[in-house]
Amino acid sequence: MGTNGxxxxxxxxxxxxxxxxxxxxxxxxxxxxxxxxAVRGARHFTRxxxxxxxxxxxxxxxxxxxxxxxxxxxxxALPDDAADDAxxxxxxxxxxxxxxxxxxxxxxxxxxxxxTPFDDDVPFPDPRxxxxxxxxxxxxxxxxxxWGWHPLAGALHGKVVxxxxxxx
Length: 168
Hints:
The protein is 31% helix and 22% strand. The two termini are 25 Å apart.
């Protein structure tokens, strides 16, 4: 991960128990296009990365969360005129592994606060599961051990929404 990735995730790293650089096991990231087909690419990237890290048994939960985070970024965080830009991709997926932890983080260009399943302004999911949308962050909250977000600073604009998985 380059300098932008380190800077981008500094607030997230500050929220985790202190670990030296030698304790960070692995990290991987990929750029995603401004098209919904990018969700499939994000799942494929996640599967490949988890296989390399010998974490294939966590794929179902992690993939569901990655899919929701990427879908939310594509649906709610991109301007209407977003176009694919090879030098400045609008959405980026980061997977980071610490001993006992896996973090999925999705960077997008919007400074807007993501809705939470507990906000009054965001509709809670349809209890029968028939609603077309509104379940994304509820699923992230249900399948990950914790999640959150933080705005980007400096030359990077937007925010990062992340989900943490405890590895047992």
